[in-house]
Design a protein that fits this description.
Blueprint lengths: L10 H10 L3 H15 L1
Length: 39
């Protein structure tokens, strides 16, 4: 839903994301690893 406010992944996007999901970097890392395994 953050994309309704920010169209791209700029600094403001990630600052806003951090408010609701402070561990987003760790979640992204896990997701990226899963995607790499399945390729």
């Amino acid at each position: 839903l953050i994309h309704f406010i920010y169209n791209d992944h700029n600094k403001e996007f990630y600052d806003f994301l951090y408010i609701f999901m402070p561990d987003w970097k760790e979640c992204k890392k896990i997701l990226d690893e899963e995607v790499a395994i399945r390729l």
